[in-house]
Amino acid sequence: MAETMRFDGRVAIVTGAGGGLGRAYALLLAARGAKVVVNDLGGSMHGEGADTRPADQVVAEIREAGGEAVPSYDSVEEGEKIVQTAIDSFGRVDIVVNNAGILRDVSFHRMRDVDWEKVYRVHLFGSYKVTRAAWPYFREQQYGRVVMTSSAAGLYGNFGQANYSAAKLGILGLAHTLAVEGLRRNIYVNTIAPIAGSRLTATILPPDLVEALKPEYVAPLVAYLCHESCTETGRLFEVGAGWVSRLRWERSKGVFFPLNRPFSPEQVADRWPEINDFTDADHPDNAQASFAPVLENLKTADSPAKPAGNEFVDLDKALGFEFEPKPLTYTERDVSLYALSVGAAEDPLDPKELQFVYEMNREGFKPLPTFAVTFPFVVMWQVTSVPGLKFNPMMLLHGEQYLELKRPLPTAATIMNHARISQIYDKGKGALVIVDINSYDEAGNEVAFNQASLFIRGIGGFGGERGPSGNVNLPPDRAPDAVHAQKTSESQALLYRLSSGDRNPLHVDPDMAAIGGFNKPILHGLCTFGFAARAVLKHFANNDPERFKSIRARFTSHVFPGETLVTEMWQESDTRIILRTKVAERDEVVLANAAVELHPADGVVEKQEAETAVSSRSQTLFAQIQERIAAHPEWVEKVGAIYQFRLTGNDGGNYVVDLKNSPGRAYAGEDSAAQCTLIMDFADFLAMTKGELDPQMAFMSGKLKIEGNVMLATRLQTLFS
Q1: 79 Ramachandran zone, left/alpha/beta (phi>0; psi -120 to 50)
Q2: Which strands, in side-by-side order, build the sheet including 676-681?
Q3: Which residue has the higher pLDDT, 291 or 645?
Q4: Which of 313, 465, 463 is CA-nearest to residue 388?
Q5: DSSP character for 160?
Q6: Beta bridge pairs of residue 457
Q7: Which of 153, 267, 377, 721 is buried most deeply by CB count within 10 Å?
Q8: pLDDT tens-digit map of 410-457
Q9: Cβ(34)–Cβ(222) under 8 Å?
């Protein structure tokens, strides 16, 4: 265990030390031998008035315990007076703990200049003034310790505290710079974000929680940061209730865009998942580290700058090109035909299979999720006329396909399809052209997103990015969790071309197949894609298309109609399946680097009975809440707000409690006028209504999440009391 830490001979200034956290700091430092200047203006929590008693009482406590202390009643805005008190009384100053603070909480649109100015002057300006006055003494004596006080509001934001959070984050920036400037002179500056019971938190936390979050649980960290043995500087710590944690910046690996040509907002959007990927993240802790990626990109830039391209590819023209939007209308017949073309209803007596091909099926009629890969064909033919992209269509290969459903597919609809060239990669011998296709229903809702990766042979070498390696979704080194084998028919390609809109003669005409190097027509890659997705749906989702979220796959070889497709599947989690498809007759992989994402099973209501039970429990509870509201019309005037409840879990649902419009009511549904949204599991909500779970404790523990005006949630105490 570390040696006992003493502060004999050291002089400490603690601002806002008349109570709460500051008092705890002052008492602990004094008990360890420090001479303490107990500074407190004695004003209200809103920064009004003055009173000498808080500082005097703490000084008296220290002296009665045998310590040395003097009071200071000056405002932190006059920091030089506070430091002068230390010099006049003790001849030096070694430690500054900037703790003084006030609150003037109000939503931003109602905030006045005085609310902003008062909070700024106490927190940020006050921290500057006190530290600035002590700084010359620290430099001269080659020693100093400073502790700044930020907060969770400054780090993460909080409703109604724009002034407070801005000042608190500003303090962190001030501390970082002082840590850099003071390092060579043995002046160390650190910042804490404490969670403790005080007069500033008593207004938003229940009394028992305020009592539990004792300031004494924060003081030990502050004392350590003030001690000469501590060599940390420029650090940030969260602390409270016996928990101490260091917080640091984290930066994703990021994406480099070429500097030899302009890049567009659309390109940023396309790379957004990579920009937000924190795999292999780093943790910059100084300005030089922050600037390093910029320098790296500057070093790799071509000089002199010139646009990437060759006789076949002009990136400036082709990249970002938007195709003319095209509609696609389909009927129940098209849905059934597609399902048959990818092998559905292999057992026509199975209602789970029949649901994809028979519109009168007693179990319902639903499209196969991969039916959505047929939507882009009405626009994809335009790829042959993209400006800045010249190639022989016979040199085009379908490399990869990604499909994501945004909502369950309707059984008949008119879909509008928008496509654009989102990226073009230089693969040396060819170009990889990425086409994004967004499909919308007649109401403007996005139904599906497709991304087609097209490899065009013979047009590479234009000086563009090589792009990702694509070595992903590799099967684990173990036996598959499921294997599905199904023989295709000799006429499979003829059937698929009618259902998909892909009329490429390569799949039907022997002469065209021969030109492509095949001794007979081959099956469409997207037909194999559909077979594979069906296998996953059957083995891991009980053939429920509503559980399907997305599928990605790479086409690695051809399939001849009549061959047997064997799909091997590995379950990584309840919602992620890795798969690979082979041709049994040739033992050749034809679909690789593939994965299907499913929605969680508990997120899908499969039986009407379960749906009825959920509805019954939720509605019964809110019916009781409605009775309480009807019995208390005065609550509308007292509360004056509309609340949205989003209850998750098997018994969940969306409900509105309107305590703004007379006579007040509770009902199932949603209201865009709601000012406060409460999100929690139904079981926890039920416990809260029974008094078994305290609302504030639920919020602090994360069981209750609140969006919108957080302060309005405190007004609901009446409803649940």
Answers
A1: alpha
A2: 665-668, 653-659, 641-648, 676-681, 705-708
A3: 645
A4: 313
A5: T
A6: 430
A7: 153
A8: 999 999 999 999 999 998 889 999 999 999 998 899 999 999 999 999
A9: no
Residue linked to tokens 């492509």? 516
Three-state DSSP at 69 gives strand
Lowest model confidence (mean pLDDT) among 156-160, 231-235, 432-436, 650-654 = 650-654
DSSP letter string over 347-392? STT-HHHHTTT-TT-TT-----GGGGGGTTHHHHGGGGG-TTB---
Over residues 396-420, the mean pLDDT reads 94
Q: Is the pLDDT of residue 631 over 50?
A: yes
Report the alpha-carbon distance of residue 26 to residue 171 in Å, rounded: 21
Residues 6+ apart with CB under 8 A from 468: none
The per-residue DSSP string of 108-142 comes to GGG--HHHHHHHHIIIIIHHHHHHHHHHHHHHHHT
**Of the given ranges (3-7, 161-165, 337-341, 673-677), which has the lowest mean pLDDT?**
673-677
Nearest Cα to Cα of residue 448 among 456, 430, 461, 436: 436
Amino acid at 586: R
Residues across the chain: 721
- Residue 255 amino acid letter: V
State the Rg of the chain over Cα: 34
Mean pLDDT for the chain?
A: 88
Q: Give CA–CA dist 666/621, Å, rounded.
A: 10
Give me the mean pLDDT over the 255-270 stretch: 75
Report pLDDT digits (tens) over 571-596. 999 999 999 999 999 999 999 999 99
d(CA 343, CA 543): 14
Q: Say how far apart CA 360 and CA 351 lie, in whole Å.
A: 11
Rounded Cα gap, residues 351 and 304, in angstroms? 66
Helices (H), 237-327: 265-270, 272-275, 287-300, 315-318
Active site residues: 164
Which amino acid would we find at residue 512? M
Looking at residue 76, the DSSP 8-state letter turns out to be: G
The two three-digit tokens of residue 527, written as one number: 């037909």
pLDDT in tens, 639-670: 889 999 988 876 778 889 999 888 888 888 88
Longest dimension (CA), the chain: 104
Residue 721 has pLDDT above 80, yes or no: no
599 token code pair: 């929605």
Angle between helices 126-141 and 79-90 (to 10 degrees): 40
Which of 257-271, 352-366, 512-526, 674-688 is predicted with the least confidence, judged by mean pLDDT? 257-271
pLDDT band at 90 (very low <50, low <70, confident <90, very high): very high
Q: Which two tokens stand for residue 626?
A: 């409605």
Whole-number pLDDT of residue 308: 60
Question: Among candidates 383, 420, 388, which has minimal Cα distance to 307?
Answer: 388
Instruction: Please tell me the distance from the alpha carbon of residue 382 to that of residue 525, in angstroms, as a whole number.
Output: 20
Specify whether the CB–CB gap between 7 and 32 falls below 8 A.
Answer: yes
pLDDT classification of 605: cutoffs 50, 70, 90? very low
Pairing of strands 95-97, 11-14: parallel
Domains of the chain in sequence order: 11-247 (3.40.50.720), 250-306 (1.10.287.4290), 315-600 (3.10.129.10), 608-720 (3.30.1050.10)
The beta-strand segments (E) located in 427-495 are 430-440, 446-457, 482-487
- Type of residue at 64: E
Alpha-carbon span 302 to 168, nearest angstrom: 43
Buried/exposed 511-549: b ≥16 CB within 10 Å, e otherwise: eebeeeeeeebbbbbbbbbbbbbbbbbbbbbebbbbbbb
For residues 513 and 519, the answer to whether their CB atoms sit within 8 Å is yes
Which residue, among 98, 94, 176, has the nearest Cα to 134 in the 3D structure?
94
Does residue 716 carry a pLDDT above 90? no
**pLDDT (mean) for 549-564:** 96
E strand or H helix that includes residue 630: helix 608-631
